[in-house]
Amino acid sequence: MKTASEFAKDYISGLKQVLDHVPLQTIDGIIQAIEQARDEKQQVFVIGNGGSAATASHMMNDLCKGTLGHKGDAPWPRLRVIALTDNVSLMTAWANDTDYNRIFSEPLKNLAQRGDVLVAISASGNSPNIVAAVEAAKEIGVKVVGLTGFGGGKLAKMADVSFVVPSDGYGPVEDVHMILDHIITGYLYEKLKETHSR
Length: 198
Fold this sequence. Notes:
globular; alpha/beta
């Protein structure tokens, strides 16, 4: 058995290899979708399961506040972002009374409008409740950004913009999704700061 430090060294080495091959060009499309939603005063929704649910909550936090700087007092227009993962009572009501696969699609039917954006996060790309949410979003006219790994799965094929992490490991895929969140937030903040300082 390897020592913990040896395991860590191998993990980090593997993660570096994954990072060297992420589809960076896809980030432009993600940024464009989020900026368009902000400019048109549309809503951005974020969803995911398990570790991806935590990423969804973190991404909501960063897009809502991180794009305004550390003190949150930036003068530019704010993003309107909701992580559907954060309403436990509504999720569990749908899961308990009907079907777990409806925990995101049904709230979207309440809240989403044509022109909104859905950021759907699924490492495998095949989570049934994520797929159902994307189907509902498409019916409403919501633009879908898919963050996946494992070759992309169904989500990558359904999304308008797909970011597929080139890994079949849940840890590295989720790591890269979190890094992507910080890249997106950091870029938007710097761009907004530059635009509004002119």
